[in-house]
Specification:
Shape: globular
Distance between the termini: 68 Å
Number of helices: 13
Structural class: alpha/beta
CATH class of the largest domain: Alpha Beta
Largest sheet: 5 strands, parallel
Strand content: 25-35%
Mean pLDDT: 96
CATH superfamily of the largest domain: FAD/NAD(P)-binding domain
CATH topology of the largest domain: FAD/NAD(P)-binding domain
Low-confidence stretches: none
Radius of gyration: 24 Å
């Protein structure tokens, strides 16, 4: 029996951050990870997809070099090297996590953890018992896996999940992406940039359903202008797979607003959400409650079982890496008895989609604000009126801000355009500080920057916009 103050099950962005913060606060920490330190995000999600998208972005710029007075001839790419670079980035960062855990004296156990009951965990590897651990506090950070819909089961050959999509050995000529959330849209943009004929299917009427409709509509128009295809209000009813020596294709039957149509493609990527990894971890030996497939926690990430906590994708949405990391810190600081610990407001978690153009948001959409009874003031500013965006050759974009008309409180901010995933943090800080329009108006934004569009959007909400 190995004893410690804290056991963390799962070494993803929630788990390893919780382990490090626990060690910083003087706790003895044991972290159990069954596969890769850094979890899905670092190894098979956030990081490698951004490496792929960076290659696609540079390729796109090279193809349009003439727009900048440059000449680039015979533009081509090596798919193997693009994938190898992506995998190398992940490997480097995974090794970095291993170093950080060692530096902070976190004990790492390689294996699969199962709860045995009050404060006890068994670890197995390849079916054999590796260790038995005990601690008064246990954090579950087991993450999630891709959701599989009946009839759309991945086979790793013709129908892919994100794992196969990250490491293609050849490029298909055509592709169907099922789901227009961040994962689906990012893969659609990557493959389209490399010359694949891509169609995206979304069950609701708007792509990127969690985003403000006005913003997602602008993003869709920009992507359609580049050649991406979208079928919204559509359901994939059936996939007929044909894989033999002569045929390598899928015939998809799609119902679009009640009318059936078929589409023949070479590959399908399913990106229809995630399912929490709650099976076979011993939850039945605890009082923890599961609702809609996710573990129920309070504001301090505690479950109904004393001493058992859960963070990240195994709990309620949003299912984002940075949300998991922040929950890990909140949870551990509360365990350690730190003062001034603040619970997480899910509405203050920014979301980013790394398509072209990028989409980023934080807080309430205009529709959600109105649903909650707010009388709103809305400001908008297009990138076409921003000097830096025009100089960069990135005029497609907009910043939209939403305020409480009665108090001036910032309720939400939504952006589409170049580098907005870097800018959204400004509004995230503003929400944390409970900022009103007055502070934002009186803040000096540097010139020339795209961030000036943020300022102008605020001014527009109050009839004071300058450059429009």
């Amino acid at each position: 029996m190995t004893s410690s103050d804290l056991i963390v099950i799962g070494g993803g962005p929630g788990g390893y951050v919780a382990a490090i913060r626990g060690a910083q606060l003087g706790l003895t920490v044991t972290l159990v990870e069954r596969e890769h330190l850094g979890g899905i995000c670092l190894n098979w999600g956030c990081i490698p997809t951004k490496a792929l998208l960076r290659s696609a972005e540079i390729l796109t710029h090279m193809k349009h070099a003439e727009n900048f007075g440059l000449s680039v001839k015979d533009v081509s790419f090596d798919l193997g090297k693009i994938v190898a670079r992506s995998r190398g980035v992940s490997a480097q960062l995974s090794a970095g996590v291993k170093h950080l855990l060692k530096k902070n004296k976190v004990t790492v156990v390689d294996g699969t953890a199962t709860l045995l009951g009050k404060g006890k965990v068994e670890v197995t590897k390849d079916g054999k018992k590796v260790d038995e651990l005990s601690a008064p506090h246990i954090i579950l950070a087991t993450g999630a896996r891709p959701r599989v819909l009946p009839g759309l089961e991945p086979d790793g050959k013709l129908v892919w999940t994100y794992k196969e999509a990250l490491v293609p050995d050849t490029l298909p000529k055509s592709m169907l992406v099922v789901g227009s959330g961040a994962i689906g849209i990012e893969f659609a943009n990557f493959y389209h940039a490399l010359g694949v004929d891509v169609t995206v299917v979304e069950v609701v009427d708007n792509i990127m359903p969690v985003e403000d409709v006005e913003i997602s509509t602008l993003a869709r128009k920009a992507m359609e202008k580049r050649g991406l295809k979208f079928l919204t209000g559509a359901i994939v009813k059936k996939l007929d797979k044909k894989l033999d020596k002569k045929t390598n294709e899928v015939i998809a039957t799609i119902e679009v607003k009640g009318k059936a149509t078929t589409l023949t493609i070479e590959r399908v990527i399913t990106a229809v959400g995630v399912v929490a990894n709650i099976e076979q971890i011993g939850l039945e030996k605890t009082k923890a409650v599961v609702d809609k497939g996710h573990i129920v926690t309070n504001e301090w990430c505690a479950t109904a079982e004393a001493g058992l906590y859960a963070i990240g994708d195994v709990t309620a949405p949003p299912w984002l890496a940075h949300k998991a990391s922040h929950e890990g810190i909140i949870c551990v600081e509360k365990i350690a008895g730190e003062k001034n610990v603040h619970p997480l407001d899910p509405a203050h978690v920014p979301g980013c989609t790394y398509c072209t153009p990028q989409v980023a948001s934080v807080g309430l959409t205009e529709a959600k604000a109105k649903e909650r009874g707010f009388e709103v003031r809305v400001g908008r500013f297009p990138f076409m009126g921003n000097g830096k965006a025009i100089a960069m050759g990135e005029p497609d974009g907009m910043v939209k801000t939403i305020f409480d008309a009665k108090t001036g409180a910032l309720l939400g901010a939504h952006m589409v355009g170049a580098e907005v995933t870097e800018m959204i943090q400004g509004y995230a800080i503003a929400l944390t500080l409970e900022t009103t329009e007055a502070e934002l108006m009186n803040t000096v934004f540097p010139h020339p920057t795209i961030s000036e569009a943020m300022h102008e959007s605020v001014l527009d909400a109050y009839g004071r916009v300058i450059h429009m």
